Amino acid sequence: MENSSYIQSKEGLVKNDEVDLRELFIFIWSKKLLIALITSIISIAVVIYALQLPNIYKAEALLSPAEQQQNNGLASLAGQFGGIANLAGVDLGGSSSSSKTGLAIEVLKSRKFSSKFIEQHDILKDLMAVKEWDLYQNKITYDKEIFNTETQEWVREVKLPFKAKPSMQEAYIKLQEAMSVELDPDTGMIKLSVEHYSPYIAKNWVDWLVTDINEVMRIRDVDEAQKSTLFLTQQIQNTEISNMKSILFTLLEEQAKIIMFANVRTEYVFKTVDPAIVPEKKFKPRRSLICILGFLAGLLLSLFIVSVMYLSSNPEESINEHTNG
Q1: What is the pTM of this model?
Q2: Where is the signal peptide, in residue numbers (predicted)?
């Protein structure tokens, strides 16, 4: 019995689980209006959703590790006085450009740096409460359910332990989502980027991040060098061995160089190769791609629904005569 839902066997009538593709295609074609309707509804909904998405702009800067001019001197001393320097708490081998760059990147991603950055530049509301940016007026609009611009108060409704004003932990997560730091292992170049509703804010944040990380690393090295200088000075005063004094004076000179370089160089860790600019084109969303994916999703969903309808309502052929084997 061809194209039937039941087949004849010695044991009687057995249901045929195989789906006739020809019948399925005919059934799908008969439901073409339903398929078109479902696809159109989903496509229209996706288009409306895509049009309501705010534009996101991406500003980025290309950076290179600043050359450590004291590296040559420290490298030559590391082989001779490395053990003594370690006892004195002086770092002779850790000031290479690669290690300092890696440390600076990790500091840039740290909670402590992010919290200080947010508080110092007062960007919490631009980070957590922005709704959209007006291209023509260059004006930020804040979500009224989160931040009241008239009273300058946070009004969002959240459950404990969260509060109306976002915590630094929340702000840190949001900043890390907006910020990206990429290190090219081949060239050693660093690409620092920020995404935001406003291209001007994105550009400013990139500039501030570069300036702040250079300053933080500069202060860090100066503080370590000053502590080492104090220790070396005390050891020079306490020793009577001329050779040891000579070594300590050499180490002391290198610490003085670190302090000098840190005080005269503003781009201490990262040098700006290509500074951030205000982007003219949006970075996302890609509305055309969203609409295409929405159309395909609607089409697949409609085909799935029609296929389920076919499998659940496939007519059984009536059997008029039944012959026992």
Answers
A1: 0.75
A2: none
